[in-house]
Amino acid sequence: MKKQLLSAFLLSVFPLSTASAGELGDALAATKPILDARLRYETVSQPIFTRDAEALTLRLRAGFETGKAWNTSFLTDFEWVESLTGRYNSTTNGHTAYPVVADPQVVELNRLQLQNTSLPDTTITLGRQRINLDDQRFVGNVGWRQNEQTFDALRMVNKSLPGLTVDLTYLIRVNRVFGRESPQGRFRGDTFLVNAAYDFGLGTLTAFGYWIDVDAPFSGNASRTIGARFAGKAPLGAVTLAYALSVANQTGYKANPADYDVMYYLVEASASYAGFMAGGGWESLGGNGTKGFSTPLATLHKFEGWADVFLTTPPDGVVDTYVKAGYAIKNVGPFDKVGLTAFHHWFEAERGSADYGHEFDVSLSAAWKNLEFTVKYADYQARSFAVDTQKLWFQLDYKL
After folding, report:
1. Distance of alpha carbon 184 from its chain centroid, rounded?
2. Residue 82 burial (10 A CB sphere; 0-12, 13-18, 19+)
């Protein structure tokens, strides 16, 4: 009886508490778990090492995302990367007799964010979050590595005008794939990302400006990049054409000691028909002889070959001319989807046109319900840059 009287009194004094409690209860009831796991075996062979790297790693990512209360949702997840074999240089384990496999053993907070939609046609995200812009050439989460890259940031995305998306981000820290125990695990600085995209139907035209500030001792990565990109798809009978064009200019920014002014260009096209795909492209990152075009926040593994030889652009820049082909089919035996993709790259210097080398990449994947199995191979043959590099992956992914 006393509890009933107390409840009645509280409701009469705080009449909004019922609605508030109800809204909070609805948000908690709508909570969804986040769970994905990845088991991967990676080998790396380079002639400068007497032993090949062999990395067997397990990544578990777990967390949750609530529903909305007061137009605000909460998301958090953690990552645990376990090294099951130590015959590789993770960049933090001290095993420098082996080639690098940048999957260090870590347990750390991956994301912790609040997301609010109170303003019309606007989403505001505050906290540690995942950010992928366009094709991730300039900003991405590096999802291929076991410990993904996240950003401590305030981000606002507005879609008030039909067809137009304005994406603004202020970030103070980049949590890199190397983990917090690595000297290179964090980039700090006041960075601004501006990305405005308009959908024309046959493609999206994007204008972007990225003012990347990186504190010492990594201020050589600080840059100002201004550019534009047009990408889209168009049907041509039974064939689907895909195309992308991009251009950008980059200069040093803030504490960067380098005085440079270099260009970026991309031309890419492909055609798809009945599951088959073929195409090619040409990508140029400029260099002035001392400094090359820099993309320190990018998902670099997606570009310039899977062997990751060009994670840092050479001082004379790099031009990547490539062809690609693939085939994807659904409902093959027990599999929901099976896909095969292959690339061949020819690399040369942007300044002076030296022959760097060439690379062949191939990947086979098969998905069944929540599981996906991937076999992937990269073979870089050096001419005048880096060394011959062969990488092989066997990977099993599970996502809830």
Report:
1. 17
2. middle
pLDDT score for 25:
86
Convert the pLDDT of each residue in 233-288 to its tens digit: 999 999 999 999 999 999 999 999 999 999 999 999 999 999 999 999 999 999 99
Kindly state the tokens that stand for 68.
């909305």
Distance of CA 139 to the CA centre of its chain: 7
Domain boundaries, the chain: 1-28
Tokens of 291: 């400094």
Q: Report which of 40, 44, 103, 60 is spatially closest to residue 373, judged by C-alpha positions.
A: 40
Answer whether 215's CB lies under 8 Å from 206's CB: no
With bands split at pLDDT 50, 70 and 90, how would you rate the model's confidence at 3?
A: very low
CB 290, CB 307: distance < 8 Å? no
148 SS3 class: coil
Q: Which single residue is written with the structure tokens 């409690």? A: 21
**Least trusted range by pLDDT, from 12-21, 187-196, 223-232:** 12-21
Phi and psi at 18, nearest 5°, equal -65, -45
* Bridge partners (DSSP) listed for residue 363: 341, 376
How many angstroms separate the CA atoms of 327 and 315, rounded?
37
Bridge partners (DSSP) of residue 344 are: 323, 360
Res. 26 pLDDT band, cuts 50 70 90 = confident
DSSP string, 362-373: EEEEEEETTEEE
Q: Please give the pLDDT value at position 102.
A: 96
Largest CA distance in the chain: 88
Which residues does 321 contact at the CB level (< 8 Å), separation at least 6? 280, 281, 282, 345, 346, 348
Give the mean pLDDT of 52-81.
Answer: 97
Cα–Cα distance list, 154 to 5, 166, 193 (Å): 45, 14, 10
Q: In whole angstroms, give the CA distance from residue 18 to residue 65.
A: 23
DSSP β-ladder status, 335-348 and 355-368: antiparallel
Whether residue 58 is predicted with pLDDT greater than 80 in this model: the reply is yes
Nearest one of 369, 275, 371, 374 to 327, comparing CA atoms: 275
**104: cis peptide before it, omega within 30°?**
no
Spatial contact of 373 and 399, defined as CB atoms under 8 Å apart: no
Angle at 301 between CA 296 and CA 302, to 5 degrees: 105
